[in-house]
Each structure stands twice: as structure tokens, then as C-alpha cells.
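[User]
Protein folding is very new to me. Any chance you could explain this protein sequence and its C-alpha cells? I have pasted everything here:
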Amino acid sequence: MTRLNLLLLVVLVCSAIYLVQTSYESRRLYAALERERNAAHQLDVEAEGLDVARRAYATSLRVERVAREELRMRAATPAVTEYVTDPARTAAAAQGGRP
């Protein structure tokens, strides 16, 4: 009978140790999951902010202002338009043939 009691005591101690280890691992994994959820939420917030900034930079008014002020560009008008022709095509057209 004492052997059976001793065996049951060993099984009980092993079971208790396994239960404590499993509980600890469960809490550790839950804490890691919460950290990752918080990190994912932070990344979502950052992505939303970057998307808003991208849309703000891509507005036509801002692009036009940057082109005018920083790149010193101006709108094309017939007065400043220069037409470039292909000399080979012009010569072939003058001879009546195709290039």
C-alpha cells in the first residue's frame, strides 16, 4: 500500500509541476500576444498617418506650387512652345516619298 501511495504522490507532484509550468507558459505567451497586438495597432496608426501624408503631398495644388516655386517651371503657352521636327522626315516629305 505504501508503494501505491508513494507512486500516487510522485504522480501528484509531477502533475502539479506540469500545471505550474503550463500556467506560466500560457501567461508568457498571452503577454507576448498583447505586445504584438499593440505593435500591430501602432503600425496601423503609423500607416494611416503616412497614407494621409502621401495624399497631402499628391494634391494637384501642391504639385503645381512645387513645380512653380522650387523647380522654376511655368505653364506651357503657345508663345513659349517650340516645335521640333525630324530633318529626315522633312526631307523625305519634300521629295514626296516616305521615310
